[in-house]
Every structure is written in C-alpha cells, then in structure tokens.
Amino acid sequence: MAIDFATTIMTDAVQGHEARMTTFDTVVLESIVETADTRTLVLDAGGERLDWRAGQYVSIDPHQFRSLGSFIGYLEQQKGRREAPRAYSMCSAPHEPYLAITIKEEVFEPGKTKYPPLISGFLVHQVRAGDPLVVRGFAGAYTLPEDVETRTAHILHLCAGSGSVPNVSMIKDSLRHHARLRHTFIYSNKTWDDVIFRDSLARLEEQHPDRLQVINTLTRDPGPLPYGVRSGRIDADRARAGLARLRVRARHHRVGPSRACGRGHDGPSAVSRIDARPPAHRRRTARTDQDRSLRLMCGVE
Ligand SMILES: Cc1cc2nc3c(=O)[nH]c(=O)nc-3n(C[C@H](O)[C@H](O)[C@H](O)COP(=O)(O)OP(=O)(O)OC[C@H]3O[C@@H](n4cnc5c(N)ncnc54)[C@H](O)[C@@H]3O)c2cc1C
C-alpha cells in the first residue's frame, strides 16, 4: 500500500465555532510543573458550559495583568501598536472537568530576538493557584473532523516541543470517542528533561496499548537515554518504523505544499524538514491516498 500525503487543513468540523467566541472568567486551580520552562495551568470556569473541540485554543489578553502594565506600555511604544492577545491550546480534553493550557516560556536572546517575550514567562513563573485569569475562546481549525473514523483508521502525530499541546488533547479525546482509531505519537525534544506530558502520555499508552504508541526522540541529549527513547531527529525512516510497528506499510511519502512539513518529493527530505522549520505554530494535516488509511498531524513549536 502506498501512502501519499496531500496536505489539507481541517476546517470542516469547526465552522461556526469562531462565531461562538466568548470572554469568560476563570480561576487558576493549579500550576503544574511540566519541565523547567513549561507549566500547565488548570482553570476553573465556574461550572460554565463550555463548547469546544479538542485541538482548539483560547486567547489571553496581556492587558489584564496589572503588574505587566509598564512593560506592556514600553513594548507598545517600541512596536508602535497595541499588544495582541496570545493563543494557548488546551491540553485538556472536552470531557475532562477543567480546562488546562500548557505554556512554554520563551526567552529573550540578545542579538537574536528583537524584543523580550511578553507573557509566556509571566504565566509560567508568576501565575499561581487562586489567581484570576480571563480567557477568550474557543478558536482554531486544528481538530479532528466528526467523521474521522470514516476517513482513517490511524493517525500519525509528528510533534516537537510545545507543539504537542493540541495533539495531546486530541489523543485523549479520540481514545474516548473513536473506538477504532489508533494513534502513533512521534515526539521530538532536545533532552529528556524537556519532554512535556512525559508521565501522562506513558500512562495513556499503558491504558491503551493497542491504540496508542508514543515514540520519543531527542536531538541533544548526551544520554544514557531511558529504555525505548531514540536519539536524533525525526526523519522519514523513523516515521516509517513507527508505521511499520502498527502494520502500516509506507512505501512512499510525499508531503504536500505545507510550510510545516516542507515541500518535498520524497519522504526523507520532506519528513526530516518538519523539525528544522523556524519556531512558529504551524499545524497542517495530511490525507492519505484513496484508501485513506492514515492521516498525518504535525504540531511544530
Ligand atoms: C494557535 C496557537 C496556539 C498556540 N498554543 C501554544 C501553546 O499551547 N503553548 C505555548 O507555550 N505557546 C502556544 N502558542 C504561542 C503563544 O501564543 C505565544 O506566541 C508564546 O507564548 C509567546 O508569547 P510571549 O508573549 O511570551 O512572547 P511575544 O511577546 O509574543 O514574543 C515572542 C517572540 O516574538 C518577537 N516579537 C514580538 N513582537 C515582535 C515584533 N513586533 N516584531 C518583531 N518581533 C517581535 C519577540 O522578540 C520574541 O522573540 C500558540 C500560538 C498560536 C498561534
């Protein structure tokens, strides 16, 4: 069977959701340390009925944080425009009792970045349980369509760093609602200590051994690596190996005109370009050939 990826963005399942965007008050229930620079904020929306889909995001307006007022004023003067809300994907799934977002701190790198990042470090290091947080949601077309099971039996997630956040939400949601769908989650990070959702993904894998396989790959960890963890970048061979374990034969990969996945002709160049892109949240989905047995979801930092 040949697998031919033609890139599409899934918008069909979420039309109308943008129209139902609302701003609502939450209280931070917990700030969970994921790694040294990443935290998950668990948010209590006070029992409000929330209508959203796994993979979507909320926006946080920095102007709500009084202690950032002078910093915001200075940045707005420098940039010549108002600071926009920042988007954060949910790592929680809609069936879970609370919303949760995962934030990775961005840092100022002298000579490399133009301005100091505004709110990610604040959300990671300053926001704590009991703090109020106003969020606006829900938005985003990076979701699985309602009829995903009629289109595919297997989803391959290729993720790097905090690009995994919406995919983790989708996996949790799908394991509950799509009884026949399998997931292979190939996750690239620099070191073992950078891997977010490490324990929760391992638990999910244990609970669903036939439906979820997690493959961790590390690009800069000198080792020794934990059992099963690979070293190096995600390339086409690694993606094929992941597929082979799930008994999907991949003879030929072609990635469509996705900026996240690169415009390649063959697997190795196309797939290996996924983690070589500049840091940006660019998510694309890809459809298989006519038998539609596999769908590719990319979550890139
Ligand atoms: C759909 C979506 C989902 C996302 N989900 C997540 C998530 O789940 N977790 C997560 O951690 N992040 C996520 N992000 C990224 C997040 O929204 C923020 O961009 C990130 O946290 C950085 O915000 P910041 O305010 O700290 O940095 P910013 O102030 O936005 O700065 C970030 C970088 O941009 C540069 N910059 C800022 N303004 C300018 C300018 N005017 N000119 C030139 N350079 C500039 C800065 O120098 C800095 O290097 C998501 C983004 C999108 C679009």
Report what the structure shows.
The protein has 301 residues and is an alpha/beta fold. It folds into 2 domains: 18-139, Translation factors (Elongation Factor Tu (Ef-tu), domain 3, Beta Barrel); 145-300, Rossmann fold, CATH 3.40.50. It has helices spanning 69-79, 120-125, 148-151, 165-177, 198-207, 236-245, 267-272; strands spanning 6-8, 22-35, 38-44, 57-60, 86-89, 99-104, 132-139, 154-160, 182-189, 212-218, 230-231, 282-287, 295-300. The strands form 2 sheets. The protein has a 7-stranded mixed sheet with strand order 1-12-13-8-9-10-11, sandwiched between helices. Strands 5-4-7-2-3-6 form a 6-stranded antiparallel sheet. Strand 8 (154-160), helix 4 (165-177) and strand 9 (182-189) form a beta-alpha-beta unit. The two termini are 31 Å apart. Flavin-adenine dinucleotide binds next to strand 5 and strand 6.
SSE layout:
Layout: E1 6-8, E2 22-35, E3 38-44, E4 57-60, H1 69-79, E5 86-89, E6 99-104, H2 120-125, E7 132-139, H3 148-151, E8 154-160, H4 165-177, E9 182-189, H5 198-207, E10 212-218, E11 230-231, H6 236-245, H7 267-272, E12 282-287, E13 295-300
Parallel strand pairs: 8-9, 8-13, 9-10, 10-11
Antiparallel strand pairs: 1-12, 2-3, 2-7, 3-6, 4-5, 4-7, 12-13
The chain binds flavin-adenine dinucleotide.
Flavin-adenine dinucleotide (FAD) binds at residues 57, 79, 86-89, 102-104, 106, 113-115, 117-120, 140, 162, 165, 281.
